[in-house]
Recover the amino acids of this structure.
């Protein structure tokens, strides 16, 4: 059995969850469910990043101590995971004892391997981004400097421990040139290589100006810089520093799904930390884009933050899951608008897939006593053509999802459903019944039910609740939502349960 370890970034708890958090978590859930259908040994991790100056400041602003504040805020993210119907294996919090032990163990390993030294740091630092910037990366306005994100930076001077990142420049470059699939999409891969080639400087990895963090081993004046602390969570969940346990042995290294804004930390700092500690670098880092709201950048100041709870309440959970991953190529930026949700859901789910399920199954309910004889005729050219197409589409679908190209995989299923609707219109089982061609009618209905089953199976990672409803209508055991059964043709007559619309059309009331 193959193992598959997938992670979201751990989410910063200085504010409540928004559409970006939902997007990344659902992406990982889709990929985890897909690998479960392949019978892989899946481990899916998410959680919260709870240390750092931003959190300390946010807790003070909320008249709370940092631990109480993070307890409350972390709970919001955990609730969202359940609300989005994401089946995680673990939810990690960086304030947990197991994580503090893991982070300190990684630090000690790096220190023992002569990868960390004590020095003094002077430079530009953004509290909001938890990142340092060279002056040529900054934007100057009104005699102030700002990070590319728009956050104001401050000049920082303090004693600091450094990680010897500069020593890993050539090794990282060699690693990525040898393993070009380790970063995706290709634009992000090129971006990382360009950054490495521009030169890597040693990285400040500790702080003395605030206290909310993991203490540095053997020097409690310092706390760990948030990135070495936060990134270690991926190891913590597998039981690090015990690398001899079964979970670590079978699942490391991981596939990390991250937003493009934190690609540098995951694709440069993280693999260097890992290799410096004699551990394998991540299997893959996939960086996705950002969402805008009706063409505008999403921000609290503009008041256009998209609340995942509200949009799910408005359109339905599976509908939103489907929209987010069919509307734009995974990896690109996307624009969220109510019109685009309505158009996409109505076109693909209501008019195409839902219509196919409803008209085929309701016809069987009304005209065949809810029973269809399984008489799939592979001798018929049109029937065999549609069945063969489903296999071709399935192979492409798997190839795309193996490479995290979720939108392309969905497109293959939609094209199969569209062909099934064309087949239904052309073969017209209602006309066959009128002409008393009952055998041929059953062949056509059997083929349509089989294509609905196969399309449903492929869409299960994206719209799991809806697929379960379709499997109930088809009277198929939920336990057979598994790729083992994809090519298994039914041998007996099937009783179709009374159907109702799975994807009602959304009316645009704007």
């Amino acid at each position: 059995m193959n193992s598959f370890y997938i992670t979201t970034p751990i989410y910063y708890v200085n504010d409540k969850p928004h559409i970006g958090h939902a997007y990344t978590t659902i992406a990982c859930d889709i990929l985890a469910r897909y690998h479960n259908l392949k019978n892989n040994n899946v481990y899916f991790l998410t959680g919260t990043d709870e240390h750092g100056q931003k959190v300390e400041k946010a807790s003070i602003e909320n008249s709370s101590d940092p631990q109480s504040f993070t307890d409350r805020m972390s709970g919001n993210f955990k609730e969202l995971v359940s609300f989005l119907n994401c089946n995680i294996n673990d939810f990690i919090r960086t304030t947990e004892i197991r994580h503090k032990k893991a982070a300190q163990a990684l630090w000690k390993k790096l220190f023992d391997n002569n990868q960390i030294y004590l020095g003094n740091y002077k430079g530009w630092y953004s509290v909001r981004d938890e990142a340092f910037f060279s002056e040529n990366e900054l934007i100057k306005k009104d005699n102030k400097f700002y990070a590319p994100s728009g956050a104001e930076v401050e000049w920082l001077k303090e004693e600091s421990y450094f990680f010897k990142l500069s020593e890993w420049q050539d090794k990282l470059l060699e690693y990525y040139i040898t393993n070009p699939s380790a970063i995706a999409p290709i634009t992000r891969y090129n971006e990382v290589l360009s950054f490495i080639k521009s030169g890597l400087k040693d990285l400040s990895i500790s702080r003395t100006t605030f206290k909310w963090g993991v203490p540095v081993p053997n020097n409690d004046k310092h706390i760990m810089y948030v990135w070495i602390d936060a990134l270690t969570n991926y190891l913590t969940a597998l039981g690090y520093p015990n690398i001899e346990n079964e979970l670590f042995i079978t699942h490391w290294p991981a596939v990390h799904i991250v937003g493009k804004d934190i690609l540098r930390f995951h694709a440069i700092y993280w693999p260097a930390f890992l290799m410096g500690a004699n551990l394998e670098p991540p299997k893959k880092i996939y960086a996705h884009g950002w969402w805008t709201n009706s063409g505008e950048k999403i921000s609290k100041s503009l008041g256009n933050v998209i609340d995942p709870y509200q949009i799910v309440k408005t359109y339905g959970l599976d509908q939103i899951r489907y929209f987010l991953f069919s509307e734009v190529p995974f990896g690109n930026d996307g624009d969220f608008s109510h019109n685009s949700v309505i158009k996409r859901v109505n076109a693909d789910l209501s008019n195409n897939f839902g219509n196919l399920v409803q008209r085929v199954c309701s016809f069987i309910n009304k005209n065949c006593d809810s029973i269809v004889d399984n008489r799939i005729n592979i001798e018929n050219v049109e029937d065999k053509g549609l069945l063969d197409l489903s296999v071709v589409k399935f192979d492409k679908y798997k190839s795309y999802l193996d490479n995290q190209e979720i939108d392309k995989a969905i497109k293959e299923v939609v094209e199969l459903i569209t062909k099934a609707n064309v087949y239904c219109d052309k073969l017209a089982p209602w006309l066959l019944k009128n002409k008393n061609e009952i055998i041929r009618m059953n062949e056509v209905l059997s083929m349509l039910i089989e294509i609905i089953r196969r399309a449903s199976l492929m869409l299960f990672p994206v719209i799991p609740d809806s697929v379960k409803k379709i499997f109930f209508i088809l009277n198929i055991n939920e336990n057979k939502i598994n790729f083992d059964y994809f090519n298994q043709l039914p041998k007996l007559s099937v009783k179709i349960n009374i159907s109702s619309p799975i994807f009602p059309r959304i009316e645009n009331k704007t």
Q: What stands out?
A: The mean pLDDT is 94. The chain is about 50% helix and 15% strand.
